[in-house]
Write a structure and sequence with these properties.
The chain is α+β, with helices and mostly antiparallel strands. Helix content is 23%, strand content 30%. It contains five helices and seven strands. Strand 4 and strand 5 form a beta hairpin. Helix 3 crosses helix 4.
Length: 210
């Protein structure tokens, strides 16, 4: 009996994130056909008649339910009076990736009660329904405790150096290098006691795109 791990499990690792839909191309193609058809004020039956394809088949193409032949796609493109490449413009093979070299993140220095709290944004610009903001946070010798942070979304903290008593709502947590904390960021939170300075930790904030 083979002990090899099925390819699907290798690709998914330990995450429960959903597997990418294998019909992304078909769905993108269907979305573009529908958009172009509506721009021309054509019904499904009208487009089917012009392309020589049944309305039922056109509907399945628009809903991404089938992988149409190149001949069918070409017929639809001709009926819509667009080049065949225009039907694939909604599909992009490119996937976003944000790369930041050491020390080249966007630095945000706090003022007032948060002086000495330095935030370095490590990535930005990714698309999608979820915004993720990774920060490298440094609390310098001049930093003071501040527990008044409050914002939407979920925050994850991973301690890299130093030690801190971190408060979330009415609870306090002693964080040392290697410790982590994930919490609802709508509750008041922040470093309550700075035990060993300077200290650094990775903070990842995620929230739905408005």
């Amino acid at each position: 009996m083979s002990n090899q791990t099925p390819p699907e499990r290798v690709l998914n690792t330990a995450s429960n994130a959903p597997v990418e839909d294998k019909r992304n191309l078909e769905k993108a193609l269907g979305h573009q056909i529908r958009a172009l058809r509506r721009e021309r004020e054509l019904s499904v039956a009208d487009l089917g008649a012009a392309a020589g394809i049944s309305p039922g088949m056109i509907s399945k193409m628009e809903n991404g339910q089938i992988s149409p032949s190149l001949a069918s796609i070409n017929s639809v493109a001709n009926a819509l009076n667009v080049p065949i490449t225009a039907l694939f413009s909604a599909f992009e093979e490119r996937r976003d990736c944000s790369y930041v070299k050491q020390g080249q993140g966007v630095v945000i220095e706090r003022r007032g009660t948060k002086v000495g709290h330095i935030y370095e944004l490590l990535g930005a610009g990714l698309r999608g329904e979820l915004i993720v903001e990774p920060y490298l946070i440094t609390l310098e010798d001049a930093a003071e405790p501040y527990t008044g942070f409050r914002h939407g979304g979920i925050e994850f903290i991973y301690m890299l150096a130093g030690e801190v008593i971190y408060r979330h709502a009415d609870q306090e947590y002693h964080l040392a290098p290697g410790d982590s904390l994930m919490f609802d960021a709508e509750a008041l939170h922040g470093p309550a006691k700075l035990l060993k300075k300077p200290m650094t930790y990775l903070a990842i904030i995620s929230y739905p795109r408005a």
